[in-house]
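FAQ: What does the model actually see?

It sees only this:
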Amino acid sequence: MKKTYQINERKAIEKFRSHLIQDAGAIQMVLPLAEIAQLLREGVSELLYEAEKRLLLQIVEDEVAWLTGQRYSRAVGREARRWGHTHGSVVIHGQKVRICRPRVRQANRDLKLGSYELFRREEQMQGQVFERITRGLTMRGYGPAMKECDGVFGIQKSAVSEKFLHASAGKIRELLHRDLRALRLCAVMLDGVEYKGEHMLTALGIDRTGRKTILGLHQGASENQKVCEALLASLVQRGLNFQQPILLVIDGSKALRGAVRKYWGDRGLVHRCQIHKRRNVCGHFSDGCASSWDRKLAQAYDEPDYGSAKKALERILRELMEVNPSAARSLEEGLEETLTLHRLKLPRELWKSLRSTNLIESAFSLVRVVCRNVKRWRPGDQRERWVGSGLWVAERKFRRIDGYRALPLFLSILDARARPPKEEVRAA
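And it is asked to produce this:
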C-alpha cells in the first residue's frame, strides 16, 4: 500500500502536468518542462547528467540519420544501414557513464561514429581527476566520491593513478617548457622547498605589469650551485632575457648568489630576503628570547630610508655582540644585500611584495596541501610531478603583486642603472 505522501505527490505532479497542457499551442514545450520539474526533485547534479546524456544521444542519433537516412525510411544511394543498438560508455564531467548507442553497418563492418568517439575521449576525465586530486582528494577515495548518479562506472585506484600521471605530465610539460621570450621581467625570486631529502628549486618571475609567472623548477639532492645553475640554464634555453637589469630576491644561499652572479653579472641587483635573515639570526636564541630580537629586526628593516635602517641594524649588531656573537655574525653576513630596496629608494608600496621570498612561500603552501596525501615518496620524477602540479594550480590563482601601480617608478630606477654615467657618455 502506498503511503499518503506518495499519493499526494503523484496527484500534485499530475495536477501540474494537466495545468500546463491546457494551452494546446504550448504542448510541445511544456511536456519536457514537466519532466524537468520532476527531475529537479532528484537533485540538480543528476538532472545535469541526465540532460547532458540526452543531448549527447541526440547528437549521435543525428549523425546516424545523416549516414543512413531517417528511421524506417528507404534512403536511395546510401550503403550504410542501422544495425540495432549496443552498450557503450562516454565521459561526462570526468566520469564514465553507460549508454545504449546505435550501431551502423556498411560493407559487413561496423562504422565508427565520430560523435560517439569524440565523447569517449578521456582527456576531460584526466583533467577532472587532476583537478580533484590536487584539491586534496586521495586516489583511493576518488571512485566513491565520484559516484554522484546512477550509471557511473566505479573507478579503481590504479586507473585514477594512471589518469593523474598522464594529466600531471601534461601540466609539467606546459610549466617547464613554455616559451619565455615574450616575458619582460622586473624581478625574479628564487627559493626551494624540501621533500624527504630532495630539494625542489623554483624560480618565480614578476613582469612589468605586476603579474607573477612560475619560470622553472629543478630537482636536486641539495640547493647547491650546480642545481641553481641548471635551473637558470633551462631559463636561458627557453629564451629568458638576461641582459636587462633586474631585481633578484633570494635567501641566504651562497649557491644561489654564485649562480645569479654568473648569469646576470652586474645587471642583477641582489636583494636578500629579510624574513630569512631574521629567522637565521633568531635561530641562535631560545624561543623565549627569539621573539623580542625578531621584533627589533623587523622595526629596523621597516625604517623608511637606507641611512636610518643601517643605523638601527648596526645598533642591534653591537647589542648582539655582547649577548650572542654567533647571532651577531649571522646578522653581519650579507647585511648590505638585505638593504637593497632601501638603497634603490624603491617605493614603499612594493616593499611588501619584494622585501622577501614570501610570494614563492605562499605558492609552496599550496604545494604542501597538494602533496599531503602522498604517503610514500619513490625515486624518479614523482616529486617533480607533484610539486609541479601544485605550482601549476597555484599559478592559476596568482594575482598581481601589491603595489603594482608603483612599478613604473621602479622600472625607471632599473633603466637608470642600465644607462652609462654622464661622464662615460661625454668621454665617448
